[in-house]
UniProtKB/TrEMBL annotation:
It comes from Pseudogemmobacter humi. Residues 356-433 form the ACT domain. It is an enzyme of class 1 (oxidoreductase). One of its GO terms (biological process) is methionine biosynthetic process. Keywords: Amino-acid biosynthesis, Methionine biosynthesis, NADP, Oxidoreductase, Threonine biosynthesis. This is Homoserine dehydrogenase.
């Protein structure tokens, strides 16, 4: 793609969305005009903005900018070079305005992972056909420059695995449950009152938001079309404080962990609760912070850690993209031309891994043996097993913890279904994958 700046006049931004991210962008442009001009080689200016409510006080002076109530009109204005889409939503105004901007040959910078996870391929093809940039650093892991790391710094590597904690709200909930000893429901409400949850909380706690982000990283890492519909998703709603504490006793922490890797069986993309070693960088990650681990054949392992959300960090990522556009730097949206991205073949099941199993059993002779036999019959080998006398547990019940050797997820699922036939279970058992990090 071309690399020559179109002109040396100001790069003119039209910003659709004046919420957390949009106002963060306005503040940087206003506060750092000289620095941005020096780094971009030309001034960066805002010409027009859009939001739903024209009367809202947004804590920033917007009087110098034209107001457009329709984001599509904003996106196609003659005095807008770069359309900054920070409204959100995978459909509706965000999609319509982004499509309109690209059709008009405007560059687009977006923080919208939902939009790209659903329509990334079509939007990338449209951008590249029209010679426009479509950049989305802010969409994945907020302030962490992970898109740049994958598309540029690690471009000489064959990427083996991409892994990470990419939803700060879930990591906040899981680490707060552990540090305060509180159940999920209590911490969920706390997160809601702190304003951490998306308008639709299931985007966070259902793993969907993090799955969107993982699908974008996987496309770049493996040269495949974005395939969010192939991400195995499981949220954190069923992670119990008991499992958090018991896993901790065994040297593990529970994370909503994304893993993407190309295997001999196809592309594996998972965003699920996993146990990771407590002492590992991922295990140590606290609160709303994000971490992305990139593994390349030449470089080995890179760990990127930083704020995944918030006004400053997300606006920082948007401005990095804006400055690249001002400098005339152009790359294919997902690292290689969109039309050459391969159709991904999804791996039908995840790579075998050790599993943590917890079962509450009737404390009677032979109960444990039945569980062990069921695992053996499913071809699963036990690495560690112990019985816990939990304070407060009902008399006559025993909690059994098992760590298996590596097992296929299908074998674990089969064993879990067979546990019900043993007649010794008191409640539904739990199985959580242990990820080797
Ligand atoms: P937000 O605070 O809810 O702000 C959204 C803005 O978009 C508001 O100003 C709203 O207008 C405007 N808007 C919504 N629908 C519109 C429409 N149909 N027409 C015109 N304006 C419209 O959202 P945000 O947190 O800044 O997030 C924006 C995007 O960044 C989302 O895609 C989000 O996923 C992504 N993102 C956010 C973060 C973060 O930390 N917040 C981090 C990474 C990525 P009104 O103010 O008038 O209602
Ligand atoms: N809801 C998201 C999170 C915001 O908690 O990480 C940033 O994408």
């Amino acid at each position: 793609m071309s690399s020559a700046p179109q002109n040396s006049g100001p790069l003119r931004l039209g910003i659709a969305g004046l919420g957390t991210v949009g106002i963060g962008v306005v503040k940087i442009v206003q506060r750092e005009a000289a620095l941005l001009a020096a780094r971009a080689g030309r001034p960066v200016a805002i010409t027009a903005v859009s939001a739903r409510d024209a009367k809202k006080d947004r804590g920033a002076d917007l009087s110098g900018y034209a107001w457009e109530s329709d984001p599509v009109a904003l996106a196609t204005r003659a005095d807008v070079d770069v359309f900054v889409e920070v409204m959100g939503g995978h459909d509706g105004a965000a999609k319509a305005a982004t499509e309109a901007a690209l059709a008009a040959g405007k560059h687009v910078v977006t923080a919208n992972k939902a939009l790209l996870a659903h329509y990334g391929q079509a939007l990338a093809e449209r951008a590249e056909a029209n010679g426009a940039a479509l950049r989305f650093e802010a969409a994945v892991a907020g302030g962490i420059p992970v898109i740049k790391a994958l598309t540029e710094g690690l471009a000489g590597n064959r990427i083996k695995r991409v892994m990470g904690v990419m939803n700060g709200t879930c990591n906040y909930i899981l680490t707060r449950m552990q540090s305060a000893g509180l159940p999920y429901e209590t911490v969920f409400e706390e997160a809601r009152s702190l304003g951490y949850l998306e308008a639709d909380p299931n985007l966070d706690v259902g793993g969907i938001d993090a799955g969107h982000k993982l699908s974008l990283l996987a496309a770049i890492a493996f040269g495949t079309k974005v395939s969010f519909d192939k991400v195995e998703l499981e949220g954190i709603g069923s992670v119990s404080i008991d499992d958090i504490n018991l896993a901790d006793d065994m040297g593990y922490h529970i994370k909503l962990l994304g893993v993407a890797q190309m295997t001999g069986r196809g592309l594996e993309q998972r965003m699920t609760p996993c146990l990771v070693p407590a002492e590992s960088p991922l295990g140590q990650l606290q609160g709303g912070t994000n971490m992305v681990v990139l593994e390349g054949d030449s470089v080995g392992q890179i760990v990127l850690r930083g704020p995944g959300a918030g006004e400053g960090p997300t606006a920082s990522a948007v401005m990095g993209d804006v400055i690249d556009i001002a400098r005339g730097f152009r790359l294919p949206v997902f690292g290689i031309p969109a039309k050459t991205l391969a159709e991904p073949v999804a791996a039908l099941s995840a790579t075998p891994a050790p599993y943590y199993l917890r079962a509450k059993l009737l404390d009677k002779p032979g109960a444990l043996a039945k569980i062990a036999t069921t695992l053996g019959d499913a071809g699963i080998s036990i690495d560690q097993m112990r019985q816990i006398n939990q304070p407060g547990a009902d008399d006559g019940d025993a909690i059994v913890l098992i760590v298996t050797h590596k097992a296929a997820p299908a074998d674990i699922a089969f064993a879990m279904s067979q546990f019900a036939q043993t007649g010794v279970l008191v409640e539904q058992p739990v199985a959580i994958r242990i990820e080797e990090v």
